[in-house]
Design brief:
Structural class: mainly alpha
Order of helices and strands: HHHHHHHHHH
Strand content: under 5%
CATH architecture of the largest domain: Orthogonal Bundle
CATH topology of the largest domain: MetI-like fold
Helix content: over 70%
Shape: globular
Number of domains: 2
CATH class of the largest domain: Mainly Alpha
Radius of gyration: 25 Å
Number of helices: 10
């Protein structure tokens, strides 16, 4: 028996084994298709329940009714989505900037950490919705109150996650930096920031959803435009299909912003991985 004949079964088995790229594509397809299939089944159940139980549209319209309403009033929905999305994005960017700065101060200042961090936790315990009317009293009826409230409820995840990332560093790396007499800013950029990136983006993913919630709550109370205002106005007219259509668009805007954050995370991770492999 020749060596080639002995290796033939092994080679054939390796050829039948799926490649790493194929496995990655299957995994990515599962990540996308499984949630879509689950959502589709829920919509089918919703539509079947509404039709079988003869629920009035003013109480609970079916998905097909909501979809038809969206197709009918889509210019209004897109127009109202613009201020909500813009204000949510601005609030999120302010939260990221403020939260990262405060987290760096907490990391490098023991006095700041001991004096401020417990108060941040205490403020986080307060029910945020109870303070919304006070923000309107303090900042007025314009966009300032909505932005301030959005920042107020979305900055805490950025602070906590960034602080945990900056302090959760391998002690061996820090000792190596001290042995090499590296400057503190070099340690910060080369060690602490790369270690904190997964934590920062985790906080950003939570923060972007909270920023949208803050803006919508403000629109419930004061705004004359936006998806939150449209939801309240249509609910007051018992126009439930329009209210649900606005909720669907609001979910779409939230998914868009969340996807942008996730895409930014992938880009940053890829660049850091390329830099580390060189």
């Amino acid at each position: 028996m020749t060596t080639a004949s002995l290796q033939t079964p092994k080679v054939a088995a390796m050829q039948k084994r799926p490649s790493a790229r194929h496995q990655m594509l299957v995994r990515q397809a599962r990540i996308v298709l499984m949630p879509l299939a689950c959502a589709f089944l829920m919509l089918v159940f919703w539509e079947a329940y509404v039709r079988i139980s003869h629920v009035p549209a003013v109480i609970l319209p079916g998905p097909l009714v909501v979809l038809a309403t969206m197709a009918e009033i889509y210019p209004t929905l897109l127009l109202q989505a613009v201020p909500t999305t813009i204000e949510s994005t601005i609030g999120f960017l302010i939260s990221c900037s403020l939260g990262i700065v405060l987290a760096v101060l907490l990391c490098y200042s023991r006095i700041w950490r001991e004096a401020v961090y417990p108060n941040l936790v205490l403020i986080q315990i307060i029910p945020k919705i109870a303070l919304a009317p006070l923000f309107i009293l303090w900042f007025g009826l314009g966009a300032e109150s909505r932005l301030a409230f959005s920042v107020f409820i979305s900055v805490f995840p950025i602070i906590v996650s960034t602080y945990e990332g900056l302090t959760n560093v391998d002690p061996n790396l820090l000792r190596l930096c001290r042995a090499c007499q590296a400057q503190e800013w070099q340690v910060f950029l080369s060690v602490r920031v790369p270690s904190a990136l997964p934590f920062i983006f985790s906080g950003m993913k939570v923060s972007i959803t909270l920023a949208i919630i803050g803006v919508v709550i403000g629109e419930f109370i004061t705004a004359q435009a936006g998806l939150g205002y449209l939801i309240v106005a249509s609910s007051a007219r018992s126009d439930t299909p329009v209210a649900l259509a606005a909720v669907v668009v609001l979910c779409g805007a939230g998914l868009l912003l969340y996807g942008i954050v996730t895409g930014l995370q992938s880009i940053v991770n890829e660049r850091y991985s390329r830099g580390g492999s060189r």
